[in-house]
Amino acid sequence: MRGAGFLLVLLSIVSGTVAQNSSLSAAIATLPPCAVQCLKTSLADSSCQPTDQACICTDTKLLGSVEACVLQACTIKQGLATKNTTMTTCGAPIRNRGPLFKRINITFGVLSSFFVMSRLAYKSFVTISELGLDDYFILATLIAGVPQTIISDRGLLPNGIGRDIWTLKVSQITDFLMYFYIMEVMYFAIVAILKMSLLFFYRRIFPGVAVRKVILATIIFNALYGITFVIAALSQCQPLSYYWTNWDGEHEGTCININALGWANAAVSIALDIWMLAIPLSQLIHLKLAWRKKIGVAAMFCVGFFVTIVSALRLQSLIHFGKSMNPTWDQWDVINWSTIEINVGIMCACMPAMRVILVRFFPKVFGTTDNRSNQYYAKYGSRSGAPGKGTAPSNGGLSSALGRDKNGRDKHTITFTKTFEVSHADKDGDEIGLVSLDGDSGKAKPKSGSSSSVSL
């Protein structure tokens, strides 16, 4: 009889009157006895009447007391079922940030794929140049990134990302944590591979001996960093399935400090990003460029600083990582910022190549003008030897009178002519090939295709 009385009290609390809604009666009847006892105890210490639904639903102290009691007296599954019933009956809004995540995930995934494919297609089919290690690593990043985008859309979204955990089925919670584990391992690997692409790009464009040693040391450190965290993520729980089954408190196993692992990875990644940004900027003083162009080159590399900012925002979202009682809602920020960080990083790594592509196909918009107004060209004409600014017009009579041929050359003078093979910077696929460095390492080497001739 007392048990039936508890159910009547609970029904009165959440529905007001039993007779008004038989479906609510059926829902309340399925609640565990532990939840009924918690509601009775908390109600005795509250000023709300058992039939005053509005008072009970707005009394935060009462609701907090009931929730704390349920967490102690009931199992996790029973607690989630109780919270789902009470929140639904009190008319709490259903929160869902899943659609927003879907738009962000698909948009950034498509953009990063477009950047990589454009870069590789331009090098392979337009300039017909050999791909470098930086190109292969960016391709590897894309190969790993596409499955991550698919898993986010087909794995995390259907299983509750951006929703409150008590609105989900038990199987959805387990599946969500399993997909989240896969995403965590993939994130550690993708970040390390992406950094490899940038580092090998630096190694290709900076020929200085000292800076190449620094870059090589950074490559080795990054490789060790990536391997270490991937292994740690793979083995963080024993048995492995305990990662996605321990939430219900009904399974046995052990895990390392998941919070510490996430924070350590984020901290090392941010420090490495700052170090990798300092490498190209430190070489600006050696560039034989006007100060305006130096600012432009610096701005191009500083775009990568946005990735560091995103990494810092992701670090802030790790505060409750691994300790959340509502992971499907709380870890939305972690997954969202991780998705943005990886895809923006891919786009930043492709920006030098995209600049060359834009200059090639839209030279009037993105190209640079050739200033031929200096004294040399004003006096001797254009670089190509064709009549231009500062060149005298051809005149047969005047040339003959001066003892010159029709091309204006002195008939009694030996003329030495030298021709060179000229290639555009983008032919070799080197995005920054037009930038030369001071010192021996930056001197241009003669082309093997040059030739010379002597005419009398």
TrEMBL record:
Residues 6-118 form the CFEM domain. Disulfide bonds join C34-C74, C38-C69, C48-C55, C57-C90. One of its GO terms (molecular function) is metal ion binding. Heme binds at D52. It is found in: Membrane; Secreted. Its main location: membrane. Pfam families: CFEM, Fung_rhodopsin. GO terms for cellular component: extracellular region; side of membrane. Residues 385-409, 433-456 are annotated as: Disordered. InterPro entries: Extracellular_membr_CFEM_dom, Rhodopsin_dom_fungi, SAT4-like. It is a lipid-anchor; GPI-anchor; Multi-pass membrane protein. Residues 1-19 form the signal peptide. Keywords: Disulfide bond, Glycoprotein, GPI-anchor, Heme, Iron, Lipoprotein, Membrane, Metal-binding, Secreted, Signal, Transmembrane, Transmembrane helix. Residues 447-456 have a biased composition (Low complexity). The chain crosses the membrane at residues 178-202, 214-234, 266-285, 297-315, 335-358. Belongs to the RBT5 family. Belongs to the SAT4 family. This is CFEM domain-containing protein. The lineage of its organism: Eukaryota, Fungi, Dikarya, Ascomycota, Pezizomycotina.
